[in-house]
Design brief:
The protein is of the alpha/beta class. It has one domain: Rossmann fold, CATH 3.40.50. The protein is built from 6 helices and 7 strands; from the N terminus they run E-H-E-H-E-H-E-H-E-H-E-H-E.
């Protein structure tokens, strides 16, 4: 199939890795579906990516099942198919089990775990139909526990869900990839490295996994800045 007929959905598309992936997917010829709670940012990105013929913005709270169902329904109604889905929505929080607010911790768990689960659940039937590709954004924090980090626990869950989904989809032709970035340049967050990864670095890695031939399923990519020690 011509790549220009294929559809790439991104949950968590308004900024950072999601927005960078949308730009690179569009450049590669995909039609893109952009989902996030911030609809204004999504509409600006739609115009940047070629307008309504090439991109669709859908307001979606990933923690709401009805929003996720509507996201996939809009995708299929507008573009007729779904070939690649990136479950990228996620939020962070302070380290320390007595730090921050308990309600903020609850929202992080809902977004980073339940929201990812709902994206998998909502997109899986359409991905089976197209023999597509499911991708999940985890973190190096999902491979090694960080002191006092509930965020790390949520990312361990994402890494586990990726493997659980791969096993469930085995034999269907649908591929599954989990991306586990190390330190990434993030607005409003400082790192102690001179050279971190960028959102474009992660997007390029995502498109690399998607571009492989159908018989090749890259299940897991752990990517660090060269200077990152752990």
């Amino acid at each position: 199939m011509d790549r220009e007929d294929r559809v790439f959905l991104i949950a968590g598309a308004s900024t950072g890795i999601g927005a960078a992936t949308a730009r690179q997917a569009a450049e590669a010829g995909f039609r893109v579906v952009l989902a996030a709670r911030s609809e204004d940012k999504l509409q600006d990105l739609v115009e940047e990516l070629g307008g309504s013929e090439r991109a669709l913005a859908v307001r979606c709270d990933v923690t709401e099942w009805s929003d996720q169902e509507a996201l996939v329904a809009r995708t299929l109604t507008t573009f007729g198919r779904l070939d690649v889905a990136l479950a990228n929505a996620g939020i962070g929080g302070p380290r320390g089990f007595t730090s921050g607010e308990a309600e903020d911790a609850k929202q992080m768990i809902l977004t980073n775990v339940y929201g990812i689960y709902l994206t998998i659940r909502a997109t899986m039937p359409a991905l089976r139909e197209s023999t597509g590709h499911l991708l999940l954004t985890s973190s190096i924090a999902g491979r090694r526990a960080l002191a006092g980090s509930l965020y790390s626990a949520t990312k361990f869950s994402v890494t586990a869900m990726a493997e659980a989904a791969r096993q469930e989809l085995n034999g269907s032709g649908v591929r599954t990839t989990v991306i586990e970035p190390g330190m990434v340049e993030t607005e409003g967050f400082s790192h102690d490295l001179d050279a971190t990864l960028t959102a474009d670095d992660i997007a390029r890695t995502i498109l690399f996994a998607v571009a492989q031939p159908p018989h090749m399923d890259i299940n897991e990519i752990l990517i660090r800045p060269t200077a990152q020690e752990n």
